[in-house]
Amino acid sequence: MNMTSELWAALVTCFAAVFTGNILLSYFLGMCPFTSVSREVKTALGLGCAVVFVMTSTAALNWLAYRFILKPLELEYFRFVMFIIIIAAFVQFVEMVIDRYSPKLYYNLGIFLPLITVNCAILGASLFMVIRDYSFIVTVGYGFGSGLGWLLAISAMAGIRQRLANDRIPAGLQGPGITLIIAGLMALAFIGFAGVLT
Amino acid sequence: MSPNGSAPLTKQIVIDGLWRNNPVFRQVLGICSTLAVTNLVLNTLVMCVSLTLVLAASCLTVSLLRHFTPRNIRMMVQTLIIAFYVVIVDLALKAYWPEMSSNLGPYVGLIITNCIIMGRCEAFAGSNPPVPSLIDGFFNGLGYSALLLAIAMFRELLGMGTFMGYAMPYFATHWDKWIIMVMPPGAFFTLAGVIWLCRSIKAKEAKGS
Lengths: 198, 209
Known about the structure:
By secondary structure, chain A is mainly alpha-helical. Chain A has helices at about 5-20, 30-35, 40-75, 80-100, 105-110, 115, 120-130, 135-165, 175-190. Chain A has one domain (about 20-190).
């Protein structure tokens, strides 16, 4: 495939990952931080940015590892272990680099980084990229789009929850219950994007 | 531990896992990897069995190794133990039931990052002997499965009028199918409903006692 069509495919995949196939609202990945860290827009944005960065980089790294290490050795089934180690190592590495060179950024982003290793969306993006057989450039687009989609979903949710903070909600529905119902309504809205891209 | 001494403890672990501290509606943990497959009962069943097996086995292993694991790298060790069992489950499914394996897609692999496994390993297995840990893992898995199966049953019946793929008398013929139930929003709404119901029952229980 030539470069232009490859880039175009990456762009389309990126948009699709944000809107039509949002990793959170249509694939349910990254639910745990979604229900617990979505109380304030500022925190949600911070975590979201960290996810965008880590997801794009680890999807690319995992693609390279899968293509050039696991495939030639025929160790495809080993990918779960490989991916999780790469993700954990990458997060640790980024944490150290940020801490060393930009204490300010570390202060803002640092607390979210350890949370990310256990975010299923990160591993999920890498597994999807293997299953869908994406090329390298498309993988980068997909990783970035998925992260962006997650950022969009969690910040929208945090905004809605801030508005809801003073409303009266039935006791049994407080916390996760109402969050899930809002997520359902958001997913319903996102279904409207289906068919925009084919 | 004497059999008499461990009996009430076991019973307590069982009740905790199934109801009092149920991973889904009490802790709202680990729904990510399984909620996605709750549009069909059969897929959910396979996923829940895999998860329960991985959970019980990982809890047992983590507990057996708890004295040999350095504290600061325990998360990594736990993750590798979990990943090890997930690889076994994944390979077994691929070998004996390839269609199911492709239906479930990446979600079997995502059991690794399912927070209840990590949660149970951290909260219980890391500081308890092997047998209670195994029981704890198994019944937490069961409590989790029971709720997700209920959700799947509801969604498949209302959304497609079937149960495990078989057409149901009224729902397949006269019922106006709620397609939205088998789509992602249906999962969110149903889970919210289940959490609401269980929490309300629990609140009443607490008031009564």
